[in-house]
Amino acid sequence: GLDLASVEPLPVIQGDQFDTYRYKVSVMGGYHEVAEFLTNVGSLDRIMAPVGLDLKPHPVGTDKSHLKAGESLLDASFQIQTYVARTTPLVLSQEAK
What we know:
The protein has one helix spanning 31-42, and strands spanning 3-13, 18-30, 48-57, 73-85. It is mostly beta strands.
């Protein structure tokens, strides 16, 4: 019941023991569909954390094919972070030491 508006990979944040992979995501749909999507992401076997949630009402007069009676559309923007264990040590440049 959601429209996926965009998925944009962001730069990886390198860490000592794990790297953080981030994606900027935007979806459009009803409140309950957005909540169900975020719950499903947070319930995956792999650690996937939705962060920085921004909800805004979708502009009036646009496509209402997703709507149930009495429901409004929302535009939801957030980041999803996941973590990958480092298999090689982080090598710092001479300037960073």
